[in-house]
Structure formats: C-alpha cells, structure tokens
Amino acid sequence: MSTPDPTLSAAGVRTITFAQAVNEALAEEMRRDPRVFILGEDVAEAGTPFKVLSGLVEEFGPERVRDTPISEAGFTGLAVGAAMTGMRPVVDLMFGDFLTLVMDQLVNQAAKTHYMSGGKLKVPMVLRTTLGATRRSAAQHSQSLHAWVSHIPGLKVALPATPLDAKGLMKAAIRDDNPVVIVEDKLSFQDKGPVPEGDVLIPLGQADIKREGSDITFVATSSMVVVALQAAEQLEAHGLSAEVIDPRTLSPLDSATLIESAKKTGRVVVVDEGHQSYGASAELAAVIADGAFYYLDAPVRRLGAMDVPVPFSPVLEDLTVPTPKQLTALAREMCVPA
Amino acid sequence: MSTPDPTLSAAGVRTITFAQAVNEALAEEMRRDPRVFILGEDVAEAGTPFKVLSGLVEEFGPERVRDTPISEAGFTGLAVGAAMTGMRPVVDLMFGDFLTLVMDQLVNQAAKTHYMSGGKLKVPMVLRTTLGATRRSAAQHSQSLHAWVSHIPGLKVALPATPLDAKGLMKAAIRDDNPVVIVEDKLSFQDKGPVPEGDVLIPLGQADIKREGSDITFVATSSMVVVALQAAEQLEAHGLSAEVIDPRTLSPLDSATLIESAKKTGRVVVVDEGHQSYGASAELAAVIADGAFYYLDAPVRRLGAMDVPVPFSPVLEDLTVPTPKQLTALAREMCVPA
Amino acid sequence: MTGRSAASKSTPRSARGKATGAGLAADADPPRHLQTYRQMMRIRVFEEHANELYLTAKMPGLTHMYAGEEAVAVGVCDALNRDDYITSTHRGHGHCIAKGARLDLMFAELLGKAAGYNRGKGGSMHIADQENGNLGANAIVGGSAGIATGAALSTRMRGTEQVVVCFFGEGALGQGLLYEVMNMAQLWKLPVIYVCENNLYNEYTHFEEVTAGDLLGRPRAFGIHTAEVDGQDVTSVSATAHELVERARKGEGPSFLLAHTYRYYGHHVGDIQRDYYRSKDEESHWKSERDPLTIYGAWLQDRGIATAEQLQQVEAEVRDEAQRAVEYGLEAPYPDEGEVTLHVYA
Amino acid sequence: MTGRSAASKSTPRSARGKATGAGLAADADPPRHLQTYRQMMRIRVFEEHANELYLTAKMPGLTHMYAGEEAVAVGVCDALNRDDYITSTHRGHGHCIAKGARLDLMFAELLGKAAGYNRGKGGSMHIADQENGNLGANAIVGGSAGIATGAALSTRMRGTEQVVVCFFGEGALGQGLLYEVMNMAQLWKLPVIYVCENNLYNEYTHFEEVTAGDLLGRPRAFGIHTAEVDGQDVTSVSATAHELVERARKGEGPSFLLAHTYRYYGHHVGDIQRDYYRSKDEESHWKSERDPLTIYGAWLQDRGIATAEQLQQVEAEVRDEAQRAVEYGLEAPYPDEGEVTLHVYA
Ligand SMILES: Cc1ncc(C[n+]2csc(CCOP(=O)(O)OP(=O)(O)O)c2C)c(N)n1
Ligand SMILES: Cc1ncc(C[n+]2csc(CCOP(=O)(O)OP(=O)(O)O)c2C)c(N)n1
Ligand SMILES: [Mg+2]
Ligand SMILES: [Mg+2]
Questions:
Q1: ipTM of the assembly?
Q2: Is the pLDDT of residue B250 over 50?
Q3: A70 lines ligand 2 (CB under 6 A)
Q4: Interface contact flag, D181 B105, Cβ < 8 Å
Q5: Which of A222, C317, D247, D282 might form a disulfide with D252, Cβ 3.0–4.6 angstroms?
Q6: What phi, psi does A201 have (nearest 5°)?
Q7: Which of C60, C118, C210 sits opposite B67 (nearest CB)?
Q8: 3-class SS of residue B275
C-alpha cells in the first residue's frame, strides 16, 4: 500500500483528527457488535483526559463506556475474563507508562491463554494506550514502551501514525480474536488527515509506504513517521530521495516490505521513539540487516529516544527525541559516497 | 578478560555450584556491610524453593533475611524506599516471570529516581531473579524477560553464566549505587565451576571471552553460553574455530569487545534465551551489524527462543530453546564460502 | 482429535447440567450424596496417582496436590451449574474434577499428551476445561482474580444467570490485584464468589507470619458479604455455597467464602522434607481427625444415607477409573512437533 | 551550584529541626501558630502563582494544585521532625512546602530550571527535597506507598527514631500496591503513617462512583490503627498527627489517617470547565464555609493568639516572598544541554 491511497479520493472522505478517527472507529464497532465495550479511568463523562472518547457514553451508556477505579491491573484483568467469556472489551490505559502496572494481566494472562489452553480459550481484547515525549510530562508520563509488548508472542501490537491508520487499525484490532495493544502518540491526537466514513479495515501485519524514494529508506514508527516525512522533504533540497516506510504493526511485522525497500535503496535508518537500546528499532534494524545484507551500502542505523529517563525541563526533553534535523544529517552522512 | 582466568589457579579456588556462588557472594557482602539485607518469599528458613539462600537466615537472622508475603510489587517497592534511605536491599524475585508484577516499582520508581531527583536520591538495590525454560514449568514459569529491563535507562542488567560470574557480578551489583537486575538461569544452579574464596568483583560492563576462535563469533548470554561452548566444540570436528563471547551485562553493554570479535571473525551468531523477536538478541545483533559492517562476511544471525509461549509438553518445550545442534548447523551453513 | 473420542469411553461420568436447589445436608437423596462422595474420592485418588507418577519419574515437572482439601472444591461446585464458571490455581486438580472434568484427559494433560485438556500445552498449572466452565488453573498466585471478576461482568453484560467462583489460596491475599477487583465486583454487584482456601501455608511459610489482621476484614472493607466454613465438612461448604450462589444469581452481588482446610502432601510433589515448616503431629492430626472423606463418610452412615459397603464400592470404582485413566494418559501420544507453533494466535 | 546560594537570600524560612511535642491546639505559643498560618498561606499563594504561570504560558506542562487542602499537609508536617520522611503525590506542592521547602527553588523546578530542587529534571510531579526529608512527589497514583513503607523499614533497620508519612489521594485506594504494603507495615510494626487526602474526586470522577464500602475498613482489615479528621481544620489535623507520629516513634506501628478535604482548582491547571463533574455550588460552599485559612485565622483570633492585622501581615510577607520566588524561577537559567545524560546512573 502506498500513499496517496485511492480510497482517500472517494466520496465520504473527510478531514478529521486522529482523536476523531479513534472515536469513530470505536463508535462504529460498538454499533456493529454489542459485545464491544470500553473500560478505563474517566472514559465516560470525561471522555478521557485527552477527550478522545467524548460522546461515546452519551450514545452507548455507562455500562458500555465504563468508568473504573484507578486500578489498571484490575480492570485489565477484568477485560481478560470478559474476553474469555464472550465479550470484546477495549481497555483504555491512560498513559503508556502504566503498562508497568498491567504486564502480568497482559503478558502472563491475555497473551498466553489461547496457547496454554491448547486453542480452546481466546482473548479478543484491545488495550489502547499512548507513547511519546515532549509534552513536558516528565519521566513517568512520557515513555514509549511498545518494545516490551512486541516481545511477547500472543500479543499483536499496532502503532497508528495517521488518522486513517488510527481508524483502520482500531477496527481491525477490535475484530481480531487476539489481544491487541494499540499505542497512540499522545501528541498526535489533534493531527488531521483524510479518513473515509464507515468501514476502513487495515490488516494487522501490513506495512505502509508513506512516501516513495530511491536513495535511502527511513523505517519510522508512530510519532516518528512525521519526523521521517519532514526529513525526506528536507533531503529533497539536497537532491536525495528518501522512502518512508511505516510498519504500522510491530507484531505481526511485515518484514518483507521493509527488506524489499532496503534492497532497493541500500541504505536504511530506523526511527522509533522508544529508548534506542533494546528498543523496537533494534529488531527492525536486525531484521533488515540480515534480510538485505547483500544489498546494503552502509550499516543500518538507528535513531531512538536517548537512553535517559525523560527529563522535565523542555531544553533537555527536546534533546531526547529524534528530530527531522538529526535524521537529515544522518541520511546525508550515509549517502556520501564512501 | 579471557578464560582460563589466572585468578582461578590461585590458592583458595574451590569448585562450587552456581547456587553456592550466589550464596557466598551474598554472605560475604552481608558480613562486610550491615546495610545489605535480603527480602522475598520463602527466603529465610526455606532458603528459596531453589535452596540458593540456604543457611543465610541462620547467620544473619530473620531481619536481614526477611520472608515477605506474596506481594512482589509491594516488597520491591519497599526495597526502593529502603535503598533511598540508606539501606542496600537485595530483592529475591522467585521467577523471572514475576517481573510482570514489579515493573512499576522497578521501572517507574527505582530506575528513574536518581535522574528525576537531579542526582540527589539514589537507589542502590539488587533484584535477583531467573530465566530459562526446559524445566517443564509451562508458560508462566519459564520466561526469559531480560530484554524488558535492559531497555530501561537507569537499570543495570547482569546475566551470569558461570559460578564465578555469579559471585563476581552479584558482589559488584551489591556495591553499585544503582538498581541492578541480576537474572540467573534457574537450570544452572547445580552447575559447578571454579570460584575463589573472598572478594571477586566483576565490573558491570565487561564482556568475557569464554573461548577464543577465529572463524565465527558466538555472542551468547546466560544459559546459552554453555550451548555456544558445546557448539564450538562440535565445530572443531568440522575444522571450524568458534569464539564465544559472553557480554555478562546487557546494560551497560561492552559493545567494543563484541564488535572487535566480529571484525576478527567476520561472522556472528547471537544466541539468547529470550524470545527472538524484540529480544536482547536484536540489540546485540544491531550493534554488531552496525559496528562491524565493513568486516562482515555474512549477515549477523540470531538464535533466540521461539516466539511462542513456553509449552508444557516436553516434546514441544525442547523445540523452543536453541540447542548446540541448531547452532552448529547454522554456523556451518554460514561458514560455507558463498 | 481422535485422542479425545478414544478417551471418551474410559470415564462415563458426565457433568450434571444444573445444581440442585439447596445444600447437601438439606437433601436425603442417596444418589446425589454418593456422587458427591465419589467426586471427593476421585480427587483423592487422582492425587495419589499424580504423586506416584512424579515419584516414578513418569510425569514431567512438579505438581501441587489438592488432597485434604477435597470438601472445598466439591462442596462449592455442588452449588454450580455446568455453565457457571470457575477459575482455579496452581493447586487446581480438585477444582477441575469438582467442576466435572474427566480423569483421563486430565492425566493426559499432566503428562503433556495431545489428548490432554490443553493438548499438553498447559500442564497441571494451566489445566482448563471450557466445556464445564473451568476457565483454567493459573500459575500466578492471585492471577485469576481479574479473570473471574471479568467473567462475572461478562455474564451480567450478556444477560445470563451464570455465576463465577474464583478459587485461591490464602497466600493470594498478598496480591494487590485481589483488592482492586473486589472493589469493582462490589461496585458493580457482580456475581462472583471469592473462595479463599486457607490451608495454613504459603509454600513453606505459615500464613500468620505474612498476613496481618483479619482475613475476612479484607472483603468486608469493600462491603462484600462474607462467610466462613469448615472446609473439611462438605455439607457445610455446600450449604454456604448454595446461599452465596443464590445471592449472586439474584443480582445481590459478590461474596467471599473463607474455608479452613489443609493440604496433605507437600507444597508440591517435590516437597518431601517438611519438618522445618510444619510438624508431623500437625499433619497427622488433620489426616486422622479432620479428613473430609472420613467426616463425610461417617455423616452419610450416621444418617443411613449410605452404608460402609456402598462407600467402599464407590472407592473401588474410582480406583478402577483412575487406574484406567492413568494408563490412558501414559499411552496417549505426545503432540506432533508442528503443534509448537499452533495456537499462538487465534 | 551557584543558583542555590543566590537563591538562599530570598526565603528566610529555615525548617524547624524538631517538632513540638503536642498538637497546635494544645499550644498558645503565637510564633508557632503564625508560622503554621504562614505555611498554609505559602501553599495558597504558591498555587495562585502556579496557576498564573500556566495561564500566561510561562510554565511548561500541567500541574496539579493543592489549594484548599493546605491544612492537611501543614497539620501533618507540624508533627514531623526535619529528618522524618514524607512521600508525596502528583498534587505535591503542599507537602513539599509543609515539609520545609523553599518557594524559589520550587518555582525553579516547576519552570525546568537548573536551580530547581531536581535541577529541572523532575518538574512539579517529581519534586523532591531530600534535605528536608521529602523523598519526592510521584506521578504514579499510589506509586510511593512502597517507597514510604520501605523508608519506614529502613529507619527500623538503621535504628533511628525517624517516622515516615505517606501522602496520597483517595484515588490511590484503587491501587493494589497500597494493600500489599499496608500488610507488611502492620506485620513488621513499621513507623509509617498513611495519610489519605479525600478531596472527593479521582480526576473527573466522584470517588463514591469508584470506591466500594468503607474507606477506613481497608487499613482496619490489616489491623492498622485508623483516625479520621476534618482536613480543613489544621488544629485537628495537627492534634491527630501528633498522636499517630508518637505511636509510630514508640514502635507501636503504622496508622492510617483519613482527612476530608477539597481541592479548589481543577484536577490540574487545564481543568477549567468542571460543570460536568462537580457543581459551582459545591465549589463555593467549600471555599466560603470550609476554607482552611479562614477557619484557622478565625480560630487564632477567637483565642487572641493573633490579630487580623498580624495575619494580614503574614499574608503580605508571603505574597512578597512568593513574588520574589517566582521572579527568581523565571530568571534562573535552564540546565546546560550536557545535563541530559547526567544522573542516569549514580
Ligand atoms: C505471583 C506469584 N508469586 C509467587 C509464586 C510462587 N508460589 C507458587 S504457590 C505459592 C504459595 C501459594 O500459597 P497459597 O496461595 O496459600 O496457595 P496454596 O499453595 O497453599 O494452595 C507461591 C509463593 C507464584 N506462583 N506466583
Ligand atoms: C497509576 C496511575 N493511574 C492513573 C493516573 C492518572 N491520574 C493522575 S491523578 C489521577 C487521580 C488521582 O486521584 P486522587 O488519588 O484522589 O488524587 P487527587 O488528584 O484527587 O489529589 C489519575 C487517575 C496516574 N497518574 N497513575
Ligand atoms: Mg495456602
Ligand atoms: Mg482525590
């Protein structure tokens, strides 16, 4: 799939925000399937602190848009049990940093139930949460911990980067029979983009070529897609053509699309907002460096968040997240004939 | 550092088990420093289910070898608070799978306190836990989740593979002013090796060349070190010389030693018992593929645990963990001139 | 699954669909009582075999035995319909059998065979029997408290009359998760019954050394209805369970049942040298004075509901069933290697 | 740290080393009372400035204000020595000030400046003041309960007489961690006082909608001593806090203090439109009838301990101090870029 997507010029396509796209996906799925319900902190009247769920409780009522106590492990556990017995819960985990509190329910319970039961039980649930720094929220409200869940067989992991992907991945996740973690960049909720009305389903496991190019490939996730696109534009002025690929789901991973692009351009930078060390960027880089080994003109490079807790002070925080400028500089350095 | 270590031929070197080495390290440090204490489930009279701590409560009493309720998050939190206020706790987390329960205390609290406080507070604690499958313990008691903690700045992570390393890394960890996670292979507790009496300190961040070789490098962690050594022996019969490098600590990572070996041999396999995808092996492979790019004769390959929850049935479980046979086959394939 | 259909010959016991309205003691119906006695005996004999399989190195890994605690699982499940749910623990064989499972498929699971309840992939600590509403054993202490409470939420949202029983040991009172979910269960009046099996020990530590205050104070703090029973007396357990299940079905909300009991074997099969944490005297006191099968057998005979011969007959039948079930398990084939990558995703 | 020494001129208040033996009400000593009033006023005015800094876009991020709850932090800290510990929350400015912090270094922290308590690296949600025993605010609800309890264990193991206060909002009762650590605190008789600030709301949800049963039943379940106070009345808070601290120091173990209070602003500075979850009437009732500064001011005047003029004088001094502190914070330099990689490891 490559942008511009033909479906986006069809009738019924509106320009809406990322938050609206998520909201719409949930509303459509809840209308379609009475088993779908939402639970989490301040999801009902408040519509979450980010207001992503505004209006849903009015349409679906407080049973299906259910405010919980501040009990992340508890309500994630409830979702697992509800999913095992015929419901399709969507857990709202306010900040990705709170994954720390739900790992047992997610990893030891949700992810393993289908396998451990020899295929008898299944856990069709979605857990949506956030990633992303530079919101001045300091070290416990700014982490991008998607590498953890991507490491766990039995979980699927989606990282939408545009309103369209946000809608399409959410709908696919809700219809999936497995536990799916959707990580949204909390700084992109107000970003706008074209989204069709009604069913948009983006298969889990399909990367998206967000921009075609020939000299270098940027494999970028979530918040870093826009960084890569900006860098790609800046590089044009330097006569360099960058391709931007968004895996969209880390698990399953569409490694074929990544490797193919790497073979074409011969140069790759992986950009991801998780800490660089032992982050998702390591897996993507390792897969590409292995799969495209004989085609690479330079080592696969990575740009991740700095390996430091996210500092509060804006002057420090801004240093920790990869920028278009850094990426442009790195790409130019890599494209200089050796 | 390279084996055989000269210190191991010195007087006072005994052949003891991995469990005894850990026990001795703790006992020596507790004698040396009254601030050191242990807390966890069944650590006192029972000496843990693996009997690693046997005898310590008799010497140090139940205050310093403290049985806790089955409250992993709680007692890890207590350790953080105790460490911040002048003690040096060693948390005993019975199974590595229970990391799921303590991630908030470890990652959001212990790891970040020093940084968030601008360097004023520190958290000198050790958390020891396990990894490793093939014990017929099924999916919730067999995981190797060290990649998670390695991803977190502020934590150090050590994976001893021999009794000597077990002693030396534990002692170094206890004296370190940071939170250190030590992950021990639960199947190696009865393995024997030479260990000197008294102070053995292995600096955190120093890889060990467990075997020298020239044709291929195996970077192996924890339980996989012995797998790599066995493969290396098998390869000798095929005229291939394998070097085995054990990073010993994943964070800090001695990447220089890894890259140097890769440059020398031109071929690398990373072997680690975590799930392969998004595992520690990805970081090691990415670091080497980048750092030794121009010296590599083949792509850096990885052997991790299969990306499946660990099955109970022995016939299935044994398929999930890398074996010397697999590694030998892979190495031979890689060493065939292209 | 050919293994399954072959297996179906070996244990004729089919789970009762509906629970009888009241507790055992209110009922003089001999078949029901003999069936209850049989269920307790099946657990007892199952565990004897499990221990033996370990000692003779035929069973992979370790397993935690329920012998001594039979009256709790059987008494509680006496109040449940087949489509009611339970969640179970690492010490789960008793719950599984009491909820209606077949011994042969259980042994097959403990032995890692494809015919097992989980196709050999779960083993003792994860045995699940969905058809009889057993959502699975759990190797994380307290780990199923969320699942049970969520299943209860699900029954309400789906508009069924199902109830859920969450079994756990007193050690699980150490896990914060339990408090989080009890709060929600009470807030939303969910039909879940928390059954705390206090067998005195968290592994090798007496519960009093690691448990402050009053056990029942914990559910009460959330306004949850509580009850306490002699867990060695199946008629008491059953009577109370019927009350609590009735409450839950009527929408009156969750409850918490504290059952006092004792495990006969070690924490797991390998825990043989136990002197350092509990005395031989204590063990033999429970076995000789407080044995649930003896107590119930005597109760039945006292009331003329069953004769000693009838009970012996039940035991003989159970021993026979169990023997055949073990053999079935031992002979059953292992899963194909290809199964290792099956069921990671649905 | 030149920033620090420059700053030291601006706030003369040096923390009292030792708490006086008894609660405020038992004491007619005007300086102590005026100092208490000053502390409450410092919190109130600090928050006015914090709000203003947000509204004028001078402060990065969001912050949670303590105004309305001053009597709790100040009353509790009245019972603490300087070397006693506290742990604090996302709504932590009040705790920090009450435990002895300087306003200028606090503003510097809120503004991300190198002179701040945490060198700008923590911000409002992580402000810590080790020299005065404040082990830090925490952005994880309930996240400091383990730390506080562990600090209490540490005081015992080190053989000191220090006690620890763990502040948290009633929302933290939803976190399982709290139950896990209360159990250990009681088991080991640790000198920790859990202070639950019930300001009625968990963010945008009334606590009754998400909290079943009885708040004090929770600590009581573990056998923990409990007390309840009007959190708007600093003399009551102080009296009770002295009792609880005394118990803890004497080795009589943990306690739990439930303080009823109210926050005046939104959940955070950005929570301005609040009608959907609480009424303007409710807000103005608390502000006009239950204001802790007004209540204490009246109490002081009724007893002739202070005059209206004296109180106004205190307020004027505090406003002046705060104004200078804000300016100090605004003018202070940001940390050097090189600091970003400092302090990851000790
Ligand atoms: C979260 C967690 N912590 C520790 C363990 C190790 N463990 C297994 S059983 C057990 C004791 C459980 O005691 P209790 O809940 O009373 O159940 P019992 O074994 O007595 O039936 C422990 C500590 C575990 N499985 N899960
Ligand atoms: C574990 C966790 N869950 C959720 C949040 C988001 N959050 C921040 S403050 C808050 C409400 C806290 O309410 P309470 O404990 O009563 O404190 P108050 O804000 O009223 O002082 C929530 C849900 C968080 N910071 N941490
Ligand atoms: Mg027990
Ligand atoms: Mg509150």
A1: 0.97
A2: yes
A3: yes
A4: no
A5: D247
A6: -120, 120
A7: C210
A8: strand
